[in-house]
Amino acid sequence: MDGVTMDREQGRFALPVDSEHKATVFPIFSVAKPHMRAFHLSWLQFFSCFVSSFAAAPLLPIIRDNLNLTATSIGDAGIAAVSGAVFARLAMGAACDLVGPRVASAWITLLTAPAVYCSSIADSAMSFLLVRFFTGFSLATFVSTQFWMTSMFSPPIVGRANGLASGWGDLGGGATQLIMPLVYDLIIRFGVTNFTAWRMAFFIPAILQTMTTYAVMIFGQDTPDGNFRGLQKSGRKHRDKFSKVFFHGIRNHRAWLTALCYGYSFGVVLTMNNVISQFFYDRFDLKLYNAGVIAASFGLTNIFARPGGGVLSDILGRRFGMRGRLWGWWIFQTLGGVLCIFLGRAGSLGASVAMMLLLSIFVQASCGLTFGVVPFVSRRAMGVISGITGGGGNIGAVLIQVIFFKGSKFSTEVGITYMGIMVIVCTLPIALIYFPQWGGMIRGPKPNYTEEDYYLSEWSEEEQQQGFHETSMKFAENSRSERSRKIDSISSPTEIATATHV
């Protein structure tokens, strides 16, 4: 793109952009349309879904007495809350690729909102499990959040955009530990009985989720250039086939490795959101509100921890390329596993709180570091890759809770210790993630292999002749920042690619 054309394109947006019209800066307190508006809408929507999904956790001591829940039924409900999103996240990834993140996320939150309202009428262990299961589907908005940020922000800053959007959304897991006990106490003050007050409290997350859904539809935009439907109608965006998008997503082995490893960072986050309040309430004989405040601090570290992981990933990417991003991810997630072990073995309230806070910081940062890598796995099947990885986080949570926290096989503290060991072991496969154009943790890049070679491999010769691959070539050009300084001098067929592909 020549200078005159680039200047004209820059004038269309409030922020400086690259050749894909993705923002190259991240002014966090701006609401500039479309980039920063998409950022704020995405994290607010994800935040509301997190509050809905874990609204029951801080009120469990009251709910279990009302519904006569056993330890097994509580464990089953906790598993249901995170298992529902497994397939929803896979479907969300494909939906984002085909119809865009705005419509896809709005539909899932609108469809799951009735389950949140119905939480107030649960009258048995089974009905309680079902409302938690269907409410958990809304956690698929994590995928649309990551897809939306990758569509709006340039590769050199995509880590911080993903980290901040998902991190501030994850704050809902901590905020609900404060919000729900507070709402419950306020309702009690009006003379309402305990068993009625917890039911009325569920209307707050239900209304919040409904409001953010409409905000996304009214004020959001899929890409810097417009919504998917309008771009496809005008011919400015290729209407891809689901079968091909899905095929290129599932055949990329890097997606399955990121899913496995993410299962033991975000999987730990989801598990802790389910068990931490009850853990402190039962083990240290705390009041419900005090246990909720301590548990809330686990999620509230997302204000800086997960965004910090994304920022760190971008810094390591600029300094050491993709190999730096991978090493940072492995180190932080492994340390998170070590801290799990320390938390499980801590014997006092003070030590337990300290270990919990450190664990939260490292495991949340690992989530941010994960999605500093994921956007580069594929350009054509970006949504499917995000869905597979996000689904891996929920599968990890299900496995952890089934193995260590279901029933009375292990005490909660022993389960947390064993969870830490599993995290350390299941983080090792990060060493197997290898990009031929950039290398991996152990091996360097393949000689003379470029970004264009990697992303062009997702398109057939016939599709290339029709120009469907042009956005992938722009992404390849903008992702050269992932080269380490040692290979930055490798020549790229930029001029040849431009002449051939445009």
Descriptors for this entry?
502 residues; mainly alpha; Growth Hormone, Chain: A; 24 helices; 2 strands; disordered C terminus
Describe the structure.
It is a single chain. The chain is 70% helix and 1% strand. It has helices at residues 3-10, 35-53, 60-67, 71-99, 101-118, 125-136, 141-152, 158-188, 194-201, 203-219, 228-234, 242-250, 253-262, 266-283, 288-300, 305-320, 322-345, 349-370, 382-405, 412-427, 451-456, 461-465, 470-478, 494-501, and strands at 434-435, 439-440. The protein has a two-stranded antiparallel ribbon with strand order 1-2. A hairpin with a 3-residue loop joins strand 1 and strand 2. Mean pLDDT is 87; it is low at 1-8 and 489-502.
Which secondary structure elements does this structure contain, and how are they paired or packed?
Blueprint: H1 3-10, H2 35-53, H3 60-67, H4 71-99, H5 101-118, H6 125-136, H7 141-152, H8 158-188, H9 194-201, H10 203-219, H11 228-234, H12 242-250, H13 253-262, H14 266-283, H15 288-300, H16 305-320, H17 322-345, H18 349-370, H19 382-405, H20 412-427, E1 434-435, E2 439-440, H21 451-456, H22 461-465, H23 470-478, H24 494-501
Antiparallel strand pairs: 1-2
Helix pairs in contact: 2-7, 2-8, 2-10, 4-5, 4-6, 4-7, 4-19, 5-6, 5-7, 5-10, 7-8, 7-19, 8-9, 8-15, 8-16, 8-18, 12-19, 13-19, 14-15, 14-18, 14-19, 15-18, 16-17, 16-18, 17-18, 17-20, 19-20
